[in-house]
Amino acid sequence: xxxxxxxxxxxxxxxxxxxxxxxxxxxxxxxxxxxxxxxxxxxxxxxxxxxxxxxxxxxxxxxxxxxxxxxxxxxxxxxxxxxxxxxxxxxxxxxxxxxxxxxxxxxxxxxxxxxxxxxxxxxxxxxxxxxxxxxxxxxxxxxxxxxxxxxxxxxxxxxxxxxxxxxxxxxxxxxxxxxxxxxxxxxxxxxxxxxxxxxxxxxxxxxxxxxxxxxxxxxxxxxxxxxxxxxxxxxxxxxxxxxxxxxxxxxxxxxxxxxxxxxxxxxxxxxxxxxxxxxxxxxxxxxxxxxxxxxxxxxxxxxxxxxxxxxxxxxxxxxxxxxxxxxxxxxxxxxxxxxxxxxxxxxxxxxxxxxxxxxxxxxxxxxxxxxxxxxxxxxxxxxxxxxxxxxxxxxxxxxxxxxxxxxxxxxxxxxxxxxxxxxxxxxxxxxxxxx
Length: 435
Description:
single chain, Rossmann fold, 3 domains, four-stranded antiparallel sheet, 22 strands
């Protein structure tokens, strides 16, 4: 039995009434695992046909599946970015809104990146700014976005107030998956339960309202604000929504899915582990009605890198513009969204570094555009050569001289170079965890 404070238990008894006993029993069960299929790399139907472990569909996410309690970190399709391991309840948050596909979206508190990956899949013709204030967590966010090979994401490591200055009145949709007391994650282990105390929800609610204030500055008139937490506290959920809407002109949009309704806010939803196959979640969807008269930061002028552009023409089948940012070169869909005075970890697909005598190619290029390489080697994910490649070993294959991409079951996995008939494995050393 999970050891929980009486303050929390009494509050949940008041909220749930007759369902309290069922809720309490659910906390002693194992958490439900899930995966989200990354359609940037593989079609969901194809994934269902080739996957070698049991899956069953999540009803509210067309690319989401429940899985058994198995470890998938070393699976070749995981390395290839075909899927992301994610709590099934957390998958619903993005589904609270029906995206058109061309929006400019901000994920204000994005790490480790599950919801950002979902959003990027929803907006193939749009742009996502994925922000994380903690640098170490922002690096985790970057590594997950890179593995997915997403070409429509900018990753920022900034305070929300700086994001609001940069993108005032420019954002169509903002997700605030707010830092919270984490009550919905209690099944994940003692560290979470031990860190909880009766004062934590109130402390978190103050920070949550501060973040929402900055999110409001970013949104256009008629833009959408998605607010979510992984906690049950009314202080952090319904009370935060009420307090925010009392200061601003927003319409609370009804979320039409048969989950438990919010406490006193029937338009919002609560996901409980005794009612759904997943952890605890709260979601509210709001539409902004007030005008935004703030001015955003000026665009950052970036210099085009013709040398790398010409290099890419030789090794790939596309002709894309490449821009320098700091000491690196990137392919980015829209230059207008790169702003002054913002710390970006990436602005689209990181190509690499243009050095004096050669171009040092980054793994992100292979992950995002491996299918566009003129030279490529294709394997099914269960081919022994894939495991050898993931270990960083040489593969005994023949091919044309130069750079190429390893494609696994249709998903770009990484790069290689053949020089003088010899195969050089370019899979990053930090990812070779198969020894």
